[in-house]
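To: structure subgroup
Subject: Chain for Friday's discussion

All,

I'm putting the inputs and outputs inline so they're searchable in the archive.
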Amino acid sequence: MGVLDRTDVGESPDDRDFERELRDLLLTAFAEREEITGERDLRTIPDQLPDWRVTVERCGDERPTSASPSDESP
């Protein structure tokens, strides 16, 4: 399964709208302390429409914080 990356998203306004709406949805759920990581199956009705599987993973945890000890010597 691929990862949605800025290089995967075209330059059309619809693509930017989709990315912005998805980001806003995730940030709102995170702010409300919802569990958002994991895999979701989205079933559609009628059956002629495709079903979707969406995986949400948190990334970027490897970034150091100001409280993190530094590996470098002064």
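Points worth raising on Friday:
Strands lie at 38-42, 52-56.
The first strand starts at residue 38 and ends at 42.

D.
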